[in-house]
Design goal:
The structure holds 2 protein chains of 2 kinds. Chain A is α/β, with parallel strands linked by helices. By secondary structure, chain B is an alpha/beta fold. The chains are: A alpha/beta, B alpha/beta. Chains A and B meet through helix 4, helix 6, helix 7 and helix 8 of A and strand 1, strand 2, helix 2, helix 3 and helix 5 of B.
Chain lengths: 224, 467
Amino acid sequence: MQPFQTHIGRAAVLDWCDVNTDLIIPARYLKRTERSGYGPLLFADKRYEPGTAPPPDDPSNQGPLAADFPLNHPELRDATVLVVGRNFGCGSSREHAVWAVQQAGFRAVVAPGKGEGFADIFESNAFKSGLLPIELDPGDWDALVAELRAAPGRVQVEIDLNECVLAAHTPTGDIRFGFEIPEEERRRLLRGLDAVAETLLLDDAITAHERSRPAWLAASSTPA
Amino acid sequence: MAETLFEQVWGRHVVASQPSATLLYIDRHLVHEVTSPQAFEGLRMAGRKVRRPGLTFATPDHNVPTDNQFQILDPLSKKQVETLRSNCREFGVELYDIGGGRQGIVHVIGPELGLTLPGLTIVCGDSHTSTHGAFGALAFGIGTSEVEHVLATQTLWQGPRPSALGVEVNGVLPPGLEPKDIILAVIRALGIGGATGCVIEYYGSAIRALGMEGRMTVCNMSIEAGARAGLIAPDDVTFEYIARADRPFAPRGAALEAALVDWKRLRTDDASAFDRNVSIDASNLAPQVTWGTNPAMTVDVGGVVPNPEDVPFATPADARRALEYMGLVPGTPIEQIAVDVVFIGSCTNGRIEDLRSAARVFEGRKVAAGVQALVVPGSEQVRKQAEAEGLDRVFREAGAEWRQAGCSMCLAMNPDKLRPGQRSASTSNRNFEGRQGPGGRTHLVSPSMAAAAAVAGRFADVRKLLK
């Protein structure tokens, strides 16, 4: 996993609420068995002109971009921070949704409301894949979005995971917002650690737990 | 301090604790073809193996065609199913494959096999894993990185313990209403994000009155209110289901006796132990129909399509987008909305009780002209049982298609899907944009309401048909 310490880049806004993972990446693309190649498939049924989304077997075969989709704004094409509405990533557990956001070039997603910004599984998947999910205070989120709207493409967003601060460098000055990240997730992200390798260090504790389990838990019966 | 059922189950599985994270032991890991290939590939690349293949069980479901399971024409679908087969062989995981008699939707076969038991932790790379909570298990969906983690370690890191949300459903469910109506009403009351960060426990007289199939329907859709999981304390109904003869992995004899002593302790003694409580009276419910693009956008069948300004939990802008996508005008009575396709099946409503409910409505009636009706059993076992009861004949004589087991039209990953602009009455769990196919318009209903829509050609109050 790529470590996340600091990041600076442009931010794009998609302020719809309750954006679900079927919208982020439609199910037909989940037939792929690879872990890469999902970038062009992000928001495929919104991002391209109707009927021109890439076929599942050929993600690079992309149609013309839909003019009215907010992320297609010419000044936001190279955005690396995605600012989204409440309850982003609800619905299916597909980690492909996180991979699509990441592989489309985003390193962080910013939503309003602590404990409300992201759906649980999406947030957990984001941490595991190294996409930073930031929940801002709703008032701070409003202020950030107002700045981004006032000067599209001319605001640099700077994220410092060491300090847990998000700063927006706008044409008229800087604004700074604090955020919270669970300490264990922050530690792993900062160092880009492989969770499996870390857990395997706890093998003794896992084995001890297994020995303490009642026999009926074994699922060892022979199928009839 | 009083503990809830969820907290009891959580506490039993803690392997290690850190200030903001807990390592939980996982008792059962269910695997399907869609969210597992990258996880197995991760093991291969790191030279790791599956720690407990004996606690890991796989089946193909999402990609399986339901007209002929053995003929997967889509090369990507075929490759994904074959990848599951080769991964199961390589890593020693039991596979319930097509045609073997036990294949089906992963959340339908787990309980059938006796894998789903009270007090267990159960995970699967699928958000509807909450289904298994109907047995008093803590069951939840995980992403592919977590699938890999569970395969390698049989454990899972969780953040701070979710809060416990008590949903009390009292009263008596009126004739013509189903467990699906209960859960749609609960989601409507909570909102699509209303239970984020929570585990729901359902309790009350209307929940106790449900059979296991109905309890699974209720727990299945917990995720649609944002909940991490949903569960119901086990009771005699649960124990009777587990003790049935055809549950090969359920404990038997002395092991079952020991388990029962333990399972009877699994309960929330005091409702004040919940962090939050919500109460619903089943006696006052009417059949529920979703009108919009998330499962909280629901009205009574006698209601009308709402004004975008009056939609709870949605901004007017989001509600307008939903209306536009659905091609609906505010004020339109639900019973005037015509349907093109009816889908009865899925991990929500693809069990034998669901098919019996639908058959009661289809009996002696015909599917309306121009409507395609699919009835898709959730598993090979459900199909066999339905055929033994003659339900397949009822469906066929009514003009509905009787299919083979799979996820079918719940999500557009196999040949069963809506064409752009088509409108469905569906017993599945999500009415998201494009969920049943790009441009498809989904209305979620119960199995008997779906059957009523099939025979009427539009949404109809099933209570009138059953009189």
